Amino acid sequence: MFAFPLSYAQQRLWLLDRLTPGSALYTIPASLRLTSMLDIQALRRSLNEIVRRHEALRTTFSIQDNQPIQVIAPRLTVELPVIDLQHHAPEEREAAAREQAVLEARRPFDVETGPLFRSTLLRLTPEDHLLLISFHHLVADGWSLGVFLRELAATYPAFVKGLLSPLPDLPIQYPDYVVWQKQWLEGSVMQDQLGYWKQKLNDLPALVLPTDRPRSILPQQQGARQAMTIPSCCHRGLPHQASRKGRHCS
Fold it and tell me: Cα torsion for 5, 11, 14, 16, to the nearest 10°?
C-alpha cells in the first residue's frame, strides 16, 4: 500500500462524505448498452486492465496523524457480477433493467474499505446487455468517464482477439498531480489566492435563512426544479465555449 495526501478537491469531498456517511450523493453512475454477442471474460479483463492502469481506481481513504490520506493498493481485482433478466417477459425487461440501474446508483460506497469503482452486467437477451458502472466522486469526475469509455473501447476488442492491451502505461498518475498542486500552492501563491477571496467576500450582507417552519438538523438533500428562459442577450458574458448562436442579441 502507498499513502499520499489528498488534493484540495478530494479534501472537500472527503469532508462531505464524513458529514453524510452512507450517502450515495457523490456516486457517479453510468450505463453502456452492448447489443452484440458479448465475451464476458474479455469484458471483465478490460475492466481490470483499466483499474490496473489508473491508481485512482485502486484508491481508498483513511486517517493518519489526524489527517486524511489516500491509500493506493498495488493490485486490485474488480468483479463483474451478472444479473440475468431473461426470466422477465420481454415487455418487462426494460423496466426491470431501469430498476436495477437505479438500485445500483443509490448503493453507497465505503471510502475506507472500497473499492470506489464497481460494475454490474445486466443480461436482457444473449445479444443485449447493459453494463452498469459506478465511481465515487473522490476518484473520478465527468472527464474520467470519457477516459474510461475510450479505454474500454480500445481494450475490449483486443482482448476478444486474445491480444495484449494496445494502451501504453500512463506516465503520470493522480498522486503526481496532488504533489504538484501542493508544491505550486505553497507560500505566496496560496496567500495571493486567499487574499483575493477575502477581499471579494469581505463585508457581505448577513444571510437571512427562512424560518417559516422547523428545519432538520441533518441535511436532507431534497431539491426541486425551476424552469426558466434566459434571453440570448444575457449570454454575452459567458465563456468562449458558449454557443455562437446564444451570444448574439438584436
Answer: 170
Give the three-class secondary structure for 128. strand
Distance CA 139, CA 116 (A): 7
pTM score, whole prediction: 0.82
Q: Where are the beta strands (DSSP E) in the chain?
A: 2-4, 27-34, 59-64, 67-72, 82-84, 117-125, 128-136
- Confidence check: pLDDT of 248 > 60: no
Stronger pLDDT, 42 or 20, i.e. the higher one? 42
Helix (H, G, I), strand (E, B) or coil at 120: strand
For 132-176, the pLDDT digits (tens) are 999 999 999 999 999 999 999 999 999 999 999 999 999 999 999
Output the nine-digit C-alpha cell for 111. Answer: 471510502
Angstrom distance (rounded) from CA 114 to CA 129: 26
Contact between 70 and 7 (Cβ < 8 Å): no
Is residue 47 within 8 A of residue 80, CB to CB? The reply is yes
Q: Which is more confident, 236 or 199? A: 199
CB atoms < 10 A from the CB of 241, how many?
Answer: 5
Distance CA 47, CA 64 (A): 30
Query: What is the full DSSP assignment across 193-220?
Result: HHHHHHHHTTTPPPP----SS---SS--
Q: Are 50 and 57 in contact (CB under 8 A)?
A: yes
All three cell numbers of 21: 456517511
- The pLDDT tens digits for 69-82 are 999 999 999 999 99
